[in-house]
Amino acid sequence: MGALATVVVPWFADRYAEGADWRAMAWWIHDHLPYSELQFFPKLAAFNIGWHERPKRRIDSFIPPRGCLTRPGMESHEGDHSQAYTFFPSYSREAPMPPPVP
Predict the structure, then answer these.
(1) Looking at the whole model, is its pTM more than 0.85?
(2) Cβ atoms 63, 39 nearer than 8 A
(3) Which residues is 47 bridged to in the sheet?
């Protein structure tokens, strides 16, 4: 089983319009989220993100440089990619609890 969604992150779309590299978002997702496949598109740096029970962990792009950014077995696949997204806001896996409903 799996799922796919097309996503635009407005905060990143603004930075992309100012010249940020799409690979910053790709590496951030790779380092932080469980995904199977990512495909990036030129308009607004939109991307498809797919989840699958047996994830491929592959990133492709239609934005230059086009093609495969990473997949298992490539040298770039493992390790820390945080140098690519130093301008991103800090991230916490622990979401704040919403206030109780009165």
Answers:
(1) yes
(2) no
(3) 7, 40
